[in-house]
Amino acid sequence: MPPSSLRVVYAFAREMHPKTTDIFIQYGTAGFRTKANLLEHVVYRMGLLAVIRSRVKNGRTIGIMITASHNLEPDNGVKLIDPDGEMLEQSWEAIATKLANVSDNDLEATTAEIIKEVNANMTLKTSIFIGMDTRYTSPRLAQAAANGVMALKGTPKEFGIVTTPMLHFFVKCRNDNTYGTPTEEGYYEKIVGAFKNIRQKLPVYGNYSTTLYVDGANGVGGKKLNIIKKTLDGELDLKLFNLGGNGGKLNLNCGADFVKVSQKPPVGVEHVPMQRVASLDGDSDRIVYYYVDDKDKMHLLDGDRIATLLASYITELLTASEAKHLKLGLVQTAYANGASTAYITQKLKVPVTCVKTGVKHLHHAALSYDIGVYFEANGHGTVIYSDNAKKTISKIAEEGESEQRKAAQLLLNFIDMTNETVGDAISDLFLVETVLCARGLDAEQWLSTYDDLPCRQVKVTVQDRNVISTADAERVCTSPEGLQTRIDELVAAYADGRAFVRPSGTEDVVRVYAEADTQQSADKLAAEVSQAVYDLAGGVGNRPELPA
Ligand code: 16G
Ligand code: MG
């Protein structure tokens, strides 16, 4: 397409979605994310980019999701979904950043330049899927995205309010119809259908109870579970809280991120001692569990716990179906509790890979196994199965001996219940419930599998967080000079001590993580490392204090 036919790109931009700020914005770990009122031009431009990306991919469908996940209501964000339902290819992040930041006057020329650079065939037909979370700023941004798509003669298809993982699923199904039907009904049919199917084969026994409380973070996940709930015939008794009504604010003192980081139960959830609660985040791609014991102490079952639960059950089914040659591996980040890694490698004998924070890194590493289980401690994760694994398991399900067949059939249901494109709180919830039911476990028994090391996460504000560089999956800090040496000295003073620092990809802060043999030590170590960051990396505001 010659640049002259891109006039409309500029006209749309100038008249409807002008760039009103000079603040530089970067496509980060999970797309662009900032105050909603700074995003309209960015989202419009991502509409343009989605069409270009689709045309580079032979007209295959690309997704645009409007969400700021677990951030509070005033924020919003946008990310692109690639044809197989995965995150946007990393090399395109710089292109997205460039397009988002040029002036309106340069937009037409930059768009033309990008089209040329990536060699997109602009005559191809293309449809772009658009979804959004429940924020009040989302509809307006979704419209800007659709306008961007239309400016380059793509066809937008809007799904309205959906969870982020649903949109990933729709994109995958649209480009590969063997995976499922690209509609909300298609999603329920596959994932919830598989759960109901497996529940017929696994009677409730032992300490497992079908009552599950859910903290919906006042976001989209709870609303969707409310739809699903009506179709569950006693297989699971969902009691839903924080559904967005009654003045509940999105992610405010509730949701998976709040529960994980503050290690406190969310507001708005009825308190029943020992009751298992699943807490989702605002766009429903994270889930953690917790319960409060009869002494009012909260016990967290985070992404590490879910990963180990799923990995051990899949291993059990692989052994029973005699498909042991399929290589199962687990992918974690530096945030994984040291005790979980020890348990996985030493007890489960499952290999572990550690990668940088961010789903795309985990997903990528998981692809190297026949069956890759990946989870961030924050509750984002899923399981992915290679074609070879699926074929092998299907064959055993048909041709194996009776016991092998049974296990392989359960495994096939398990695969269907999994949203393999990305971490999915709803899919993960059904997977966890299946394993707990199959093993007759209550939350306390699940927790007793191994003992977490106490840990603490804190943030430090510095002038420029990019002065912090890391290596070795973020476990070593390579700049500023002297910081790692200081961290090593501090860590050495604690039993089971471990600490690392990294610049956040979603907030203008440096994150500090510490663990040690007692909570007091973990808190103290985190505070000491924070002081080191403050001193050596240009801290601003009050110097972090040591606990009394
Ligand atoms: C985003 C990432 C998540 C990561 C988090 C880290 C996706 C879909 N989400 O939420 O994986 O754990 O960022 O945030 O990639 P941070 O860089 O601010 O610590
Ligand atoms: Mg999220």
UniProtKB/TrEMBL annotation:
Cofactor: Mg(2+)
CDD domains xrefs: PGM3
EC number(s) per entry: 5.4.2.3
All residue ranges annotated as the Phosphoacetylglucosamine mutase AMG1 domain in the record: 181-288, 302-439
Residues in Alpha-D-phosphohexomutase alpha/beta/alpha domain copies: 61-100, 110-172
Metabolic or biological pathway, per its Swiss-Prot or TrEMBL entry: Nucleotide-sugar biosynthesis; UDP-N-acetyl-alpha-D-glucosamine biosynthesis; N-acetyl-alpha-D-glucosamine 1-phosphate from alpha-D-glucosamine 6-phosphate (route I): step 2/2
Signal peptide as annotated in the record: none
Gene3D superfamilies referenced in this protein's UniProt entry, alphabetically: Alpha-D-Glucose-1,6-Bisphosphate, subunit A, domain 3 (3.40.120.10), Alpha-D-phosphohexomutase, C-terminal domain (3.30.310.50)
Residue ranges of coiled coil: none
GO molecular-function terms, A-Z: metal ion binding; phosphoacetylglucosamine mutase activity
Keywords, alphabetical: Carbohydrate metabolism, Cell wall biogenesis/degradation, Isomerase, Magnesium, Metal-binding, Phosphoprotein
Binding-site positions, substrate: E376, A377, N378, R502, P503, S504, G505, T506, R511
Enzyme class: isomerase
Pfam families: AMG1_II, AMG1_III, PGM_PMM_I, PGM_PMM_IV
Function, as annotated: Catalyzes the conversion of GlcNAc-6-P into GlcNAc-1-P during the synthesis of uridine diphosphate/UDP-GlcNAc, a sugar nucleotide critical to multiple glycosylation pathways including protein N- and O-glycosylation. Catalyzes the conversion of GlcNAc-6-P into GlcNAc-1-P during the synthesis of uridine diphosphate/UDP-GlcNAc, which is a biosynthetic precursor of chitin and also supplies the amino sugars for N-linked oligosaccharides of glycoproteins.
Name of the featured protein: Phosphoacetylglucosamine mutase
Species name: Bombyx mandarina (Wild silk moth)
